[in-house]
Amino acid sequence: MVTFVCRVHESSPAQLAGLTPGDTIASVNGLNVEGIRHREIVDIIKASGNVLRLETLYGTSIRKAELEARLQYLKQTLYEKWGEYRSLMVQEQRLVHGLVVKDPSIYDTLESVRSCLYGAGLLPGSLPFGPLLA
């Protein structure tokens, strides 16, 4: 959990020091506030009196880091999807240009299935219980 600066009053010491909306508060007076609830951070700031030291991360640098992480994730996903696509293209080419199998018994199995389908009249141009025309 992080706390962001929502607004900075015009001409305030915070604005003059360079605090801008969108900045993330990293520490208050040397105390790391990462994971501390917003209300507690406000109380720490109010209790600090006249001397306050904030360490912040610029909002744009956080956004840049988030975008960089997203870019890396998308690149990895693209790489994986590209591999899947290429695999599907190879499968499609095998189906379009004929099945290449090293085991010749697969052809016998395919022929028997084909003859059953032709014999039952399930394939176009077949005659029920008629001869198999290859």
UniProtKB/TrEMBL annotation:
PROSITE patterns the record matches: PDZ
Keyword line: Cytoplasm
Cellular compartments annotated: Cytoplasm
Top-rank lineage group of the source organism: Eukaryota
SMART domains reported for this sequence: PDZ
Domain PDZ: 1-60
Keyword set includes Cytoplasm: yes
GO terms of biological process kind: signal transduction
Cell inner membrane in keyword set: no
Main location: cytoplasm
Entry GO terms, CC: cytoplasm; plasma membrane
The protein's name in its UniProt record: PDZ domain-containing protein
Protein species of origin: Macaca fascicularis (Crab-eating macaque)
